[in-house]
Design goal:
- By secondary structure, the chain is of the alpha/beta class.
- It folds into 3 domains: 246 residues, 2-enoyl-CoA Hydratase, Chain A, domain 1, CATH 3.90.226; 193 residues, 2-enoyl-CoA Hydratase, Chain A, domain 1; 34 residues, no CATH class.
- Helix content is 39%, strand content 17%.
- It contains 20 helices and 17 strands.
- Strands 10, 11, 12, 13, 14, 15, 16 and 17 form an 8-stranded mixed sheet that branches. Strands 1-2-3-4-5-7-9 form a 7-stranded mixed sheet, sandwiched between helices.
- Helix 12 links the parallel strand 12 and strand 13.
- It is elongated.
- The N and C termini lie far apart (68 Å).
- The mean pLDDT is 91.
């Protein structure tokens, strides 16, 4: 009898596990596929190394309800949670299951998500959330809202401890959007994922505005206009492949260094075409991404926020196998000027890199901050100060390369020596000044120009003299604001050696609870 009972229980276990694999049932799985979407388990299998997933809380079910859900109980409820590996490195994951009550968040779902986040913090490994949910489970009322609150709290406590990544693979509406917003990076599958606080129907009823789900909260809206999403990728498989790529640059937690990966690229390699990237005419634009691609390992640069605030580029690359965070002015877009969006984009990225021990390499070619009443009214002073705060607070190795110009306050902001940049390099084409030569001469020599018989010729003469004496990197180098002026051919080797020298850099902030960044 005892043996028979054991056999029955083992058979029951197998049946229950098989049942849990079906989520809301084959009919709903088929409906998910007809929408062109993967199921929660298929997504996990795509993200993690083959056969590495270990599920947690398989047998959790939702709490009893007075609204007709008692007869519908699904093992695991509307989320699949657990852990596995990405390229052999530990990662935790939760995937909302749209086949179970539309992926809605219940008290049980929230507890499963919070448990996996607690484990991630204890173990010290990233958390990836795969989002596909209709929102709070209305039948559970305030319990579902309390569940969101608990998840938000975990997001905040995990911030700066382990990397947190959200992948939007379906709807995320209302309060559900705030958990992704609290994480470090948001990926959106274009044409599939949407995020918005209030949907098109509510907006139409309140404001009369007609807008589609995609235009309101699709990947294009958030990766180009709002900046909420860091990555927009076509197709779920491709999107999850990019998540794997990103994790390869990141440490597992804030106590580790990022993983070094040698790609076989000679650290002393030079590129004979690099000196010719910058046009002879200083008013002509060029693509800073070309400079970056020629000096990083194998030309591999993973841009973050690629389509948002394109006047500045941020992302991850490697030098001699070491991951670095790159911040670069982009002269091919708005001349690389710093505006509100660019300042916030760069400040957030700098703070993430600093939190996770990722050295910063900054490529500088900036004419200043964007002028205009829209920028002033929008708070350019406050937002620009965020970037100052981020660089000044960062204790990771900070290396900068001045390729052409750095004027005014924008020079200070971009990892300058006065913000405790560790190594500040410049090409011979570099310029550090309060402003451009023409503007400076018009102020300094206003009376001289007015009194001259040929004001335009005198202005041109004074501008040429100003450029010769002050618009070069040697004046800044003479004052120690530039550590070295280098041949562009030596750029890669100089950055590699600087990173080697700074490998064991240790710096601590004054004792305090935290700073007060100008939010």
């Amino acid at each position: 009898m005892v043996i028979r009972r054991k056999i029955d229980r083992r058979a029951q276990l197998r049946r229950m596990r098989e049942e849990s694999l079906l989520g809301g049932g084959q009919r709903r799985i088929d409906a998910q596929h007809r929408r062109g979407k993967l199921t929660a388990r298929e997504r996990i299998a795509t993200l993690l190394d083959e056969g590495s997933f270990e599920e947690l809380d398989t047998f959790v079910v939702h709490r009893s309800s007075d609204f007709g859900l008692d007869s519908q109980r699904f093992l695991g409820d509307a989320v699949v949670t657990g852990y596995g590996s990405v390229d052999g490195r530990r990662a935790f994951v939760y995937a909302q299951d749209f086949t179970v009550f539309g992926g809605s968040l219940s008290e049980a779902v929230a507890q499963k998500i919070c448990k996996v986040m607690d484990l991630a913090m204890s173990v010290g490994a990233p958390v990836v959330g795969l989002i596909d949910s209709g929102g709070a489970r209305i039948q559970e009322g305030v319990d579902s809202l309390g569940g969101y609150s608990s998840i938000f709290h975990k997001n905040v406590w995990a911030s700066g401890v382990v990397p947190q990544i959200s992948v939007i693979l379906g709807p995320a509406a209302g309060g559900a959007t705030y958990s992704p917003a609290l994480t470090d990076f948001i990926f959106m599958a274009s044409g599939i994922g949407q995020m918005y606080i209030t949907g098109p129907d509510v907006i139409r009823s309140v404001t009369g505005e007609n807008v589609s789900h995609e235009d309101l909260g699709g990947a294009a809206a958030h990766s180009v206009r709002s900046g909420v999403a860091h990555f927009s990728v076509a197709g779920e498989e491709a999107c999850l492949a990019q998540v794997r790529r990103l994790l390869g640059f990141l440490p597992l937690n804030n106590m580790q260094d990022p993983p070094r990966l040698h790609l076989g690229d000679d650290p002393a390699r030079s590129d004979p075409d690099l000196p010719h990237v910058i046009p002879d005419d200083p008013s002509q634009p060029y693509d800073m991404l070309e400079v970056i691609g020629r000096v990083v390992d194998s030309g591999d640069f993973m841009q973050v926020h690629q389509n948002f605030a394109q006047n500045i580029a941020v992302g991850f690359a490697r030098f001699d196998g070491r991951p670095v965070g790159i911040v670069a002015n982009q002269p091919s877009h708005m001349a690389g000027v710093l505006d509100i969006d660019a300042s916030v984009k760069a400040a957030r990225f700098v703070r993430f890199c600093d939190a996770f021990n990722i050295p910063l390499v900054t490529f500088v070619d900036v004419p200043g901050f964007m002028p205009g009443s829209n920028q002033e009214y929008g708070g350019i002073i406050r937002h620009g100060a965020k970037l100052i705060f981020a660089y000044a607070e960062a204790t990771v190795p900070k290396i900068s390369l001045l390729t052409r110009k750095a004027y005014g306050g924008a020079y200070i902001v971009m990892s300058s020596k006065n913000l405790h940049g560790d190594v500040n390099l410049a090409w011979p084409t570099g310029e550090v000044a309060v402003m451009g030569a023409a503007g400076a001469v018009n102020i300094i020599h206003r009376n001289d120009i007015r009194s001259d018989e040929d004001p335009e010729a005198r202005r041109a003469e004074l501008i040429a003299d100003y450029e010769e004496r002050l618009m070069n990197p040697y004046a800044a180098a003479a004052r120690g604001m530039i550590d070295d002026i280098i041949d562009p051919l030596d750029t890669r080797a100089k950055i590699v050696r600087s990173l080697e020298m700074l490998e064991n850099k240790r710096e601590r902030l004054p004792p305090k609870k935290h700073g007060s960044i100008p939010l």
